[in-house]
Every structure is written in structure tokens, then in C-alpha cells.
Automatic annotation (TrEMBL):
Obligatory cofactor(s): Mg(2+)
Cofactor descriptive note: Binds a second Mg(2+) ion via substrate during catalysis.
Highest classification ranks of the organism: Bacteria, Bacillati, Actinomycetota, Actinomycetes, Kitasatosporales
Entry protein name: Enolase
Localisation per UniProt entry: Cytoplasm; Secreted; Cell surface
Family per record: Belongs to the enolase family.
SMART domains attached to this UniProt entry: Enolase_C, Enolase_N
Enolase C-terminal TIM barrel domain: residues covered: 137-423
Renumbered residue ranges of the record's region Disordered: 34-62
Physiological role: Catalyzes the reversible conversion of 2-phosphoglycerate (2-PG) into phosphoenolpyruvate (PEP). It is essential for the degradation of carbohydrates via glycolysis.
Active site: 203 (proton donor), 335 (proton acceptor)
CDD domains tied to this protein: enolase (cd03313)
Keyword vocabulary terms for this entry: Cytoplasm, Glycolysis, Lyase, Magnesium, Metal-binding, Secreted
Pathway: Carbohydrate degradation; glycolysis; pyruvate from D-glyceraldehyde 3-phosphate: step 4/5
Length: 424
């Protein structure tokens, strides 16, 4: 039984305030969750409530959201059974009363939702992945490690937001992390040798002053080879262009590269990259408002490349159902704060799996030391996680948690590897 619900403002990885919530049960079990925050957010995401007072935190304060947790939300949550996650989440959504959670804020609701799950797990003396996923939860995800940052996550001219490596040929999750780290350090040396800066962007990847996707992909492929791995067989490439960010008036405006591409030209460009490099997955290849483009690209390459919807679905089960029905991609990114409660995020995962779609559990560009998504990846058995680079503790915390989970599962642990990308 929930005894108290409290919240505070803490710092996220960009140094902005975010909501951290504690749920305390009558038996003394504590659950704590800190809410992440995006920079290239989808238009249909649940609303992150910010104070908007320019005199404090440059308008980014979360005092109102914190107040909602300890006020209205606590008053309905206290006394409830923490094991009834779905019941609590329904009450939270109803209390907010809006479709986009804009009254109380998704950042207020999500902290309570996740902290309650963690408190309940603690009360059962179970790790979170086991509490939520049961004894069958033993699939460690294929990590998509973001080693070159661009777009809204860095100040360089690179138009595409993320270039990732996925150790498809590793035997264990711990080995995948080692392979990723080795490539990351080779890439640092290569970039430095080529005269590039080796500072990192929001997700811990390098942010060199490159202009084109090909330049970035060439650096990554070379780093994989020079480390001693085979591009494709051992390590696949993943991109997140975050295309909504540079889609203006029906045209994809590549500011860094200095070209404009129509939706068909943009899709053709992506198809060339997918065919020229060992690209196994592309997230948000097309903009959230370019559904025709999405369908065109899916028809073109959907049989040989995972196409993951982030901005276009916003972890929203309704939007996902529509996308499944109309052929928009073949995979969904799941970010719990895009929808605001754990139950709704899990429903989105279940809907994707029923349709034979793949699911990628994901962080946000603004993160904290909270590692809940690592457990969610294992609990749902989704087999894929995207949680940034091999540097910055806000990113490595999730990898480290998965290393612990793999160790704890022992012999029964299985690593998803590249097989998870193949659709039936
Ligand atoms: P965001 O970016 O967290 O800044 O929205 C991550 C992504 O686009 O996947
Ligand atoms: Zn994305």
C-alpha cells in the first residue's frame, strides 16, 4: 500500500531541472524514478510541464509538476495497492483528464508511475525486470550505441542526428559493450588524427564538424574495421536522421550539406545509404508529417531494413495501430515519457509485438542516472535498446545495469544479437 508520494527537482544530463519522484510503501519499500527529457520531440508527445518563468531556470523550471505530484497526484495515489499498476495508471490519466496529459504534466505522472512499479518490485524483493517481466524475462537487448552526434544534439553541421553501432555478432551483452567501447576509442583516435575535435554531444557520441552522412558513415566503418571487426557481420550500422527536424514546407532541408531534397529524393538518398553501407536499422527516416514518404520508403526497403518510428508514433498505441494498418515502417521506438505512464508504454509494446513489429526501448537526449529503461528492455523481451554512447554516465548507467542483469540471470541469460532484427 502506497504510504507517501513526494517529488523534487533534480538535474538532468544537460543541466536542466527534471522531476524525481519517491513512492514509499507502508512496509518501508521505496521506489524512486527520475524523468528524462527530449530535445527533438515529436509534435504528438504527451506534454512535459515546464514553469515558463524566464527568471528561473531560463523558463525550464518544473516546480508546478513537482507540486502536482505532492498535491493532487499524491492525494489519489496514497492508500492504493502498489501491485495494481494498471489501476494506478488509469487513475493518473483520468485525474489529468486531457488527451496529452497537459494539465498535470507527463513528467509529473510518469515519475509516480515508474516509482510505484519500482516500489512494488522492492516489496516483492524482485529486481524490476523480473517483477514486470516474470521468469521468462531473460533476453538481453541488442544495443544501438550512438557514437556520432549531429542535428539537435550537437553544434556541428551534420544534418542527421545519430550514427550508431549495433554489435549484432556479439555472443553476450557484456561482449557487445566491450566491442562498442573498443570501436568508440578507435573512432576518437581516427577523428583526432584527421584534425577533428573529439568533444561529445548530448548523447555522448563525438560531434565532429562533418557535413554529410557518408562522411560520418565512412569514419564509423573505418573505425569498426581498424578495431578488428567486420562491418555488417560483427557490427551493424544504425541511423536516426530525426527527419522531422529538417522537414520544412514539404521539403527536407539539409542545412549542413547545403542541399534540399523532396520526399522522394530524401527516400532515394536513404535507400542509397542503406544499400552502400551495412545499415540494419533507420529511425525516423521520414518526418512525422510525411506519411506518404514513410509509406514510399517502407515499400522500397522495408523488407531489408528495420524502419523505426519515433516522432511519428510517440509511443502512442493509437498512432501505432494506424501506422501498422497503413504501412508506416515496421518497428516502433518506445520512450516512456512520450506517453506518460508505464501501462500505456507496455500496451504499445504489446500491440507492436502482436503485429510482428520490432520494438526498441529508448532513452531521451536529456537523461539522468535513472536506469529504469534497462530493466524495461529485459522485462518486455523487446530485444533492442538505444541508450547513447560509450561515454557519459547518464548513458553508461543503462549499459552497466544491463551488464548486472546479465550476470544475475547467469546461464539463463540470452543475448538478442542481430537475430532480433529479422522479421518472420
Ligand atoms: P530526443 O532525441 O530525446 O532529443 O527527442 C532522441 C531521438 O530522437 O531518438
Ligand atoms: Zn529519434
Amino acid at each position: 500500500v502506497i504510504q507517501s508520494v513526494t517529488a523534487r527537482a533534480v538535474l538532468d544530463s544537460r543541466g536542466n531541472p527534471t522531476v524525481e519522484t519517491d513512492v514509499l510503501l507502508a512496509d518501508g519499500s521505496l521506489g524512486r524514478a527520475a524523468v528524462p527529457s527530449g530535445a527533438s520531440t515529436g509534435a504528438r508527445e504527451a506534454v512535459e510541464l515546464r514553469d515558463g518563468d524566464p527568471g528561473r531556470w531560463h523558463g525550464k523550471g518544473v516546480d508546478r509538476a513537482v507540486g502536482h505530484v505532492s498535491g493532487e497526484i499524491a492525494s489519489v495515489a496514497v492508500g492504493r495497492d502498489a501491485d495494481d499498476q494498471a489501476g494506478l495508471d488509469a487513475v493518473l490519466a483520468a485525474l489529468d483528464g486531457t488527451a496529452d496529459k497537459s494539465r498535470l504534466g507527463a513528467n509529473a505522472l510518469l515519475g509516480v508511475s515508474l516509482a510505484t512499479a519500482k516500489a512494488a518490485a522492492a516489496a516483492h524483493r524482485l529486481p524490476l525486470h523480473r517483477y514486470l517481466g516474470g521468469v521468462d524475462a531473460r533476453l538481453l537487448p541488442l544495443p544501438m550505441m550512438n557514437i556520432v552526434n549531429g542535428g539537435a544534439h550537437a553544434d556541428n553541421p551534420l544534418d542527421f542526428q545519430e550514427f550508431m553501432i549495433a554489435p549484432v555478432g556479439a555472443q553476450t551483452f557484456a561482449e557487445a559493450v566491450r566491442m562498442g567501447s573498443e570501436v568508440f576509442h578507435t573512432l576518437r583516435r581516427d577523428l583526432r588524427a584527421a584534425g577533428h575535435a573529439t568533444g561529445v554531444g548530448d548523447e555522448g557520441g563525438f560531434a565532429p564538424a562533418l557535413r554529410t552522412a557518408r562522411e560520418a558513415l565512412d569514419f564509423v566503418v573505418r573505425a569498426i574495421e581498424r578495431t578488428g571487426y567486420r562491418p555488417g557481420e560483427d557490427i551493424g550500422l544504425v541511423m536516426d536522421p530525426a527527419s522531422s527536424e529538417f522537414f520544412r514546407d514539404g521539403v527536407y532541408v539539409y542545412a549542413g550539406e547545403g542541399v534540399r531534397r523532396t520526399p522522394s529524393e530524401h527516400a532515394a538518398h536513404l535507400t542509397e545509404l542503406i544499400d552502400a553501407y551495412p545499415v540494419v536499422s533507420v529511425e525516423d527516416p521520414m518526418a512525422e508529417d510525411d506519411l506518404d514518404g514513410w509509406r514510399e520508403l517502407t515499400a522500397r526497403v522495408g523488407d531489408r531494413c528495420q524502419l523505426t518510428g519515433d516522432d511519428v508514433f510517440c509511443t502512442n498505441e493509437k498512432l501505432l495501430r494506424e501506422g501498422i494498418r497503413t504501412g508506416v515502417g515496421n518497428s516502433v521506438l518506445v520512450k516512456v515519457n512520450q506517453i506518460g505512464t508505464l501501462t500505456e508504454a507496455l500496451a504499445t509494446v504489446a500491440t507492436a509485438h502482436r503485429a510482428g513489429w520490432t520494438v526498441v526501448m529508448s532513452h531521451r537526449s536529456g537523461e539522468t542516472e535513472d536506469t529504469t529503461i534497462a530493466d524495461l528492455a529485459v522485462a518486455t523481451g523487446c530485444g533492442q535498446i538505444k541508450t547513447g554512447s560509450l561515454s557519459r554516465s547518464d548513458r553508461t548507467a543503462k549499459y552497466n545495469q544491463l551488464i548486472r542483469i546479465e550476470e544475475e540471470l547467469g546461464e539463463s541469460a540470452r543475448y538478442a544479437g542481430g537475430a532480433v532484427l529479422r522479421r518472420p
